[in-house]
């Protein structure tokens, strides 16, 4: 069956408790919350401009939405389906960051957001909802995935046809390897294989 959501649905995430599916609607600037038990939209939550990437914390309590058009991340309380705050990602003056995708560490402490406009990955403290740093990667980073033990993040650099491997202990790019025009990832549960 089909479920009607907002305009130009883009990113999608399932809550770890498997009760809800969250859809980032790029064209209508909102998030559709789908109840998996009814296969219907429970509520639609307004966010900022052109949401793309979306991720849910491991405890299913908060949803982080990357707003491509407003250089921000919206944080949603998943229990009340209300916006907690909007986190502004800051770059150099006159630079449009164009943030795209997001991954949250398995321990729920940090969120990593790719920014295609300035070739960086931004680090957000999930609890304080503050940007605590950024990491330079390849050109036009898009997809990002973190392995199951939270030791490494892998970033798809579409513009440079590379993948950056970030050591999350020190937030330093430890390795870079070639991959033709990578955009998004999926990783096997055992962490041995990365598909792009």
Short structural summary:
This protein is mainly β and 196 residues long.
Rg, Cα atoms, Å: 16 Å
Strand order of the largest sheet: 1-2-3-4
CA distance, first residue to last residue: 28 Å
Major sheet summary line: 4 strands, antiparallel
Task: Describe the protein.
By secondary structure, the protein is mainly beta. It contains no helices and 18 strands. The strands form five sheets. It has a four-stranded antiparallel β-sheet, with no helix packed on it. A four-stranded antiparallel β-sheet has the order 5-6-7-8, with no helix packed on it. A four-stranded antiparallel β-sheet has the order 9-10-11-12, with no helix packed on it. The model has no long low-confidence stretch (mean pLDDT 95).
Keywords:
four-stranded antiparallel β-sheet, mainly beta, 18 strands, 196 residues, single chain
